[in-house]
Amino acid sequence: MSSNNGQNGPSPNKRPRFFIRNLLPQIFETQQRGSGIENLNNYYRQIDYETAYNNKFKMMKTTGKFIIEKIPGNPEDLLRKILQECMDKTIEEAENKSIEPECLGALISSQLLDSDIWIPIRKIEKDTIDNILT
């Protein structure tokens, strides 16, 4: 059992498993200029979405493929939006198949990564995406 001395949040020894800079290093070499309200939909597009359902185990697997075309001022917000969109679609698909989703896991892969980033299966909470990114 771990303890963080009564503080809320992750324990002090918890470090991120990846950084946006690792996913898209070539984009950080150029400096972006400008300000104003950003519409994150202008920075990426979805190119594929698949669903596979296993009736025997009442388990579902969804795969979303995205192309990130530009990086906003805060790239973590973009990754948060993409992960949230995937999670929302997966939950919606599960409910359409009369499955009550309880847990969620993910895999982030990119040609720019040395290895895939595994996000362990965890219980779905209101702050699941924030927990994935911390």
Q: Can you describe this structure?
A:
By secondary structure, this protein is an alpha+beta fold. The chain has one domain (20-31, 40-133). Helices cover 24% and strands 25% of the residues. It has helices spanning 20-23, 75-96, 128-133, and strands at residues 44-54, 59-68, 103-108, 117-123. A two-stranded antiparallel ribbon has the order 1-2. Strand 3 (103-108) and strand 4 (117-123) form a beta hairpin. The longest helix has 22 residues, at 75-96. It is globular. The protein starts with 19 loop residues before the first helix and ends with a helix. 6% of the residues are buried.
Distance between the termini: 20 Å
Order of helices and strands: HEEHEEH
Count of DSSP E strands?
A: 4
Low-confidence blocks of residues = none
Q: Give the strand order of the largest sheet, numbering strands 1, 2, ... along the chain.
A: 1-2
Q: What's the main sheet like?
A: 2 strands, antiparallel
Shape: globular
Tell me the count of domains. 1
Beta-strand fraction estimate? 25-35%
Number of helices: 3
Task: Return Rg in Å.
Answer: 17 Å
Estimated structural class? alpha+beta
Helix content: 10-25%
Determine the mean pLDDT.
79
